[in-house]
User: Fold these one by one.
Assistant:
Number 1:
Amino acid sequence: MTELAAVKAALKTQAVETPSWAYGNSGTRFKVFAQQGVPRTPQEKLADAAQVHALTGVAPTVALHIPWDRVDDYAALAKYAQDHGVKLGAINSNTFQDDDYKLGSICHPDPGVRRKALDHLLECVDIMDATGSRDLKLWFADGTNYPGQDDLRARQDRLTQALAQVYQRLGDGQRMLLEYKFFEPAFYATDVPDWGTAYAHCLKLGEKAQVVVDTGHHAPGTNIEFIVATLLRENKLGGFDFNSRFYADDDLMVGAADPFQLFRIMYEVVRGGGYTSDIAFMLDQCHNIEAKIPAIIRSVMNVQEATAKALLVDTEALGTAQRTGDVLEANAVLMDAYNTDVRPLLAEVREEMGLDPDPIAAYRRSGWAQKIIEERVGGQQAGWGA
Ligand code: AOS
Ligand code: ZN
Ligand code: ZN
């Protein structure tokens, strides 16, 4: 197989998971700009996600969020998804928006609150049993706002204890993916603030526990691709929450702020043998002012472009330049791949997959945007993922 044929074949296997909450109204703490036609139910979110997959061919699964996507019958929801050409993906827990969680959830000083949070996490695993999901994604807003507010070590002990109980509940083929975030909503100390803390907990738990790298969850200037390379080497990279940031956890379209960083991340994924279904390539975004579905399509396309460039790196020339200490040549080889316009290649890949080469234009022509506005009068309640 020629190299280009191999790159095309690899791009056709790509799988980017879209988040259910990205289809609904969202905003910031200042304002939610509600949009017409947004989904009112988990089923309508899946119908929108199915459009993204139908047009891109590489977005086959949809992450759910509990309670925002709570239904009476998860097996029926899984069938609804399959009937629309997609599958249910990761289950996202939520221990951050009940009033009880003001001082934390599983790290809270009150054992009663910790029990409530743990019961929610265990409910999420029950839901995984019903949906057939592989991954439980855990992000904890837990933290403190002032020095002295709580005991930093005791909070780690509480975290360890709860994670161990959830880990014990996991069934065969199920994983827990622990996500870190350096700040927000806690402003002094976050209980899972960085990759090191997440890695240490996952190491203690066992092989079913891995780390999620949310690209918006690092201090400015962090070398995220180094974290990716290191976690891959330790077999502890479970997946990504892809998005873009200019300043904090902005949750903008991935690749929109720093496409070069996205390319470097995908290069380390490919270099480290991580371009497989073992890694969950998820989006985690909120589209506050832009139309939801085309923004998600753009994000998927941006991941495809970064991946295509990463797959085009001349690894033989790069290796030679690195081994001989030829700094300029090594950098030039990497930049050569990054500077390649891969849009024609991806258009060919889409046509070979029986898709329109331009998913955004195809969406615009599809009439879906008008259809859902007409059908979904009185869209989803404002509020993040409500
Ligand atoms: C929060 O900032 C994290 O990125 C979470 O991963 C995400 O927003 C949450 O999982 C949505 O439920
Ligand atoms: Zn995230
Ligand atoms: Zn986030």
Number 2:
Amino acid sequence: MKNPVHVAVTGAAGQIGYSLLVRIASGQLLGPDQPVVLRLIEIEPAMGALEGVVMELQDCAFPLLKGIVPTCDLAEGFNNASWAMLVGSVPRKAGMERKDLLGINGKIFTSQGKAIQENAASDIRTLVVGNPCNTNCLIAMNNAPDIPKDRWFAMTKLDENRAKTQLAIKAGVDTTEVKNLAIWGNHSSTMYPNYFDATIGGKAATDVITDEAWYKDDFIPTVQQRGAAIIKARGLSSAASAANAAIDTVANIVRKTPSDDVFSVAICSQGEYGIEPGLMYSYPMKSDGEKLSVVEGIELNAFSKEKVVATENELKEEKAMVADLLP
Ligand code: NAD
Ligand code: LMR
């Protein structure tokens, strides 16, 4: 039996937490032979609700769940964690953009970054889900300067999954037929799902779905506005699909990427494709199971270049908005 891996989850009593925790505890995050200890971090007013979540987790009798630590103390919460999933933060309401949350949520990530650096295990990796996730991750990463920058991730996998499904529906194929579809840039309404590189059934997507106007007038806006559409329909932001994407992201990071596919996650840019170094920018990525790399050599046409820069510019604006939170 392997030693348990400690997984810290913030916002554990929230909507996403409710979907995410059972999946981690049942082995879907780190595999069916990997025991886990869940370190559940909440704010004081939510500790009562968290108690209920803990009771439910206990009532599942998950064979892989070797401990649960509910806490509102960051040092205890991140102690010995090898994965930190930073979900806890306020979701937007209808009519807001995600970056409108920076004033409320940004500061959460200064103390969490510091607490991760001081308390987590030496192999800690952090995935930020709480919005605006790219810039919240930038804040946490910059408040934890001793942790290597390649251990910080912000989630754009949900956007990739949304985009793949839209292409599959349009082409009338199974979602598994759609590959090589990456989200570039920010998890926001400027994100760019680069369909020019995507494949459907092994062929270029643009040879299968040839209607150029559909991509520009339907596909891109649908993917960019999907979060808002869900908030409008549910009165609440996406939760099950967000938790699912968080599980997918970690699986993509820790497993070798198939040769005919890529995945999307925002990482600390080192200037790839001319993007400003240091921004948390989503790229087409590959993993060898240990290390990640940005896919090189993608030819961006004029349309793609414009989109890739527009979403970079928004990330620069967000960075400027939180300058006082970046030491
Ligand atoms: P929710 O309001 O249901 O839950 C958030 C939880 O976070 C609450 O229980 C709250 O008490 C807790 N919390 C608040 N501040 C905290 C702090 N400082 N430390 C620890 N916990 C804290 O919201 P939700 O639906 O679970 O969404 C959480 C976040 O995830 C939101 O910001 C939302 O916009 C974002 N989100 C991101 C994606 C993505 O693709 N990146 C997708 C969906 C949702
Ligand atoms: C989403 O994409 O569903 C989340 O980021 C929630 C939101 O605010 O749209």
